[in-house]
Structures are given as structure tokens and as C-alpha cells.
């Protein structure tokens, strides 16, 4: 029998004893009943140690806000969003959804997320009926270690007495396991612009395909810019590092559960001008391609 972990005395301990429950609470949008030419929803922000709203959270909320306005069985298949301003975790978020178009097979929505009267994210999303058609997919790369053979986020970070490390170890709703290795405190042994990250929610989610798609958008923002750091031998602990997501695009190809292991294969084809581009493919453990992702971010490291 192992010793029980010491009590968590961090600022978020009482607010989020169950990280997945905290995420689901943030994703439970309230319909205000207000109607102009748009549908209006509100949602809380999750606490973060640096005071800024996590980009994956506001993306997932925006996806669900748009989903609430789509009739029938149409599922989101793509979104393109721009992060306009940093969000404040102490403020709720208001979402306005513009019902741009409803066609025979597709629906298009624009969601804007507001705090203090100004937009922090603007997103356009498309939804589609389940239609037959041609089908193929890229193959999952071979040789990626299985998640059971890699250390969990908690195992890697709980030994470090730092607020951000403690939060990432215990309060994030997903477990992330890196191959070939994490970049939390070191740049890795090889300067390559690619990596794989296994991810899974820490506990089961409800049987709701829309929720799983939103949660996948949530998790897709965690590590997508890391191949840029890896290519240049940098890490999250690099002194003076400044990183921020600028835009995010995502395509959902097939259904998947985020409470089962998914492999997020990532690469960065370019970095220049204080910006880096990363692209990712998300596979099930059986090699089924469920989503593709692209993100450009600001990456600034002090010059010597």
C-alpha cells in the first residue's frame, strides 16, 4: 500500500477538487434568453495560475455555444478561430452566436467570446449532416511508445514545488504523456520539430458526441506549439519565454471519446518573425484519424 498524497494547499484546491468536473462546469453554458440578431450564452472561467483564461477552454465553450444553435443531428466538422485578447479568469465570458447560414447539408455559425464588452476570441464553425462519400486517411506513425510506458503528467511534475507545476500536475482535466519526452524543464535530447503526445481525460465524460468534440478542442491547445520549442532546444522553463496562441483551426473527421487514449502527433514546419506554426493529427489507439489541427502562435525568446 502506498502512502496517501499530502493535502493540496494550493489556491485552486477547494475550487476544483475534480479537474474534469471543473472543466464540465465551465462547459455548461447558460442560455441567457436574450435575443437580438444573435443567440447569447454565458459561462464561467476556470482558474489558472497565471490569471489568463486557457485558450482551449474558450474554444471549447465557443464550439458548444455554436452547437446549441444548430438544429437536428449536424455535428461540427471544422472551426477557425482567432485569439484577440487575453482573457481574465476572474470574469465570466459572454458568447454571441450569429446563425450565418443553414443549408441542405451544412450550417455555418460565427461565435464571439466577450469579456468587459470586448471580444477575446472570434470563431467561425461549420456543421454537417452525416453524409456518405469517399473515404481515406493518413496512417498513424509507427514506433510511438504506448501511454502505459510513459510517465504521467502528475508523476513528472508533482515533485516540483512551484504553483504552475502543481497546477499542471493535479488540476488539469487531461493527462498528457510525451514521446520522446516532456519539455517542462528541459529542451529534450534531440532538436527535432516533431513529437507525439498521448492524452486522455482523467475521468469518464457523459455520452454526448458534441461534448466530446468540444473537449477535444479544449485538449488540442495544450501542447500544439511545443514542437517549435523542441526544434530549438527550448522548454517551458526557458527564462523570459513568451508564448501565446494567435489562431487555431481544427477539423473533426470521425467520432472519438476523449476519456480514452488518443495520440496527438505534432510537427512544426516553420518559425519566423516571432511566430511559429504547428500542425497536428489526432488518432485513436487503433490508428483511426479523428481530427487534424493547425495553430500559429507567438513565440518569443530573449536574444543573448
What does this structure look like?
This protein is α+β, with helices and mostly antiparallel strands. The protein has helices at 19-26, 55-67, 153-157, 163-170, 209-220, 226-231, and strands spanning 30-35, 39-43, 75-83, 93-102, 106-115, 118-128, 174-179, 194-201, 242-252, 262-272, 275-284, 289-300. It has six helices and twelve strands. The longest helix is centred in the N-terminal third of the chain and has 13 residues, at 55-67. It starts with 18 loop residues before the first helix and ends with a strand. The model is unreliable at 1-16 (pLDDT under 50).
Q: What is the mean pLDDT?
A: 91
Query: What is the string of SSEs from the N terminus onward?
Result: HEEHEEEEHHEEHHEEEE
Contiguous helical run count: 6
Main structural class:
alpha+beta
Key features of this structure:
Porin; 12 strands; alpha+beta; 17% helix; 6 helices; disordered N terminus; twelve-stranded antiparallel sheet; 304 residues
Short overview:
A twelve-stranded antiparallel beta sheet has the order 1-2-4-5-6-3-9-12-11-10-8-7. Helices cover 17% and strands 36% of the residues.
SSE inventory with pairings:
Elements: H1 19-26, E1 30-35, E2 39-43, H2 55-67, E3 75-83, E4 93-102, E5 106-115, E6 118-128, H3 153-157, H4 163-170, E7 174-179, E8 194-201, H5 209-220, H6 226-231, E9 242-252, E10 262-272, E11 275-284, E12 289-300
Antiparallel strand pairs: 1-2, 2-4, 3-6, 3-9, 4-5, 5-6, 7-8, 8-10, 9-12, 10-11, 11-12
